Task: structure prediction
Amino acid sequence: LEAAIAAVWREVFGFAEDSAAAAALGVHDNFFDAGGNSLLLVKLHSRLQKTLGRTFPLVEMFKHPTIAALAASLGAEAVDKPSLDPARER
Result:
């Protein structure tokens, strides 16, 4: 999950995969400290939802502004929430 989130961060920031800026981006770097702003955050949120194939509130990005924290939050959320339609024996 961290790798997928990091790839989208690089894309939104405009870092080439093999650039020094992409290499310097760590999983504990704060989105805003790395140069992000609220407009980029909305763009990142949209792209992450498409890439991950799931929706989550934008506020999660403000609460967890690092790759590691967001991955942990989204990963825990996926584990904690039961399926909407659990399988039933017939």
Remarks:
- The chain is about 55% helix and 0% strand.
- The two ends are 35 Å apart (CA to CA).
- The chain has one domain: 2-80.
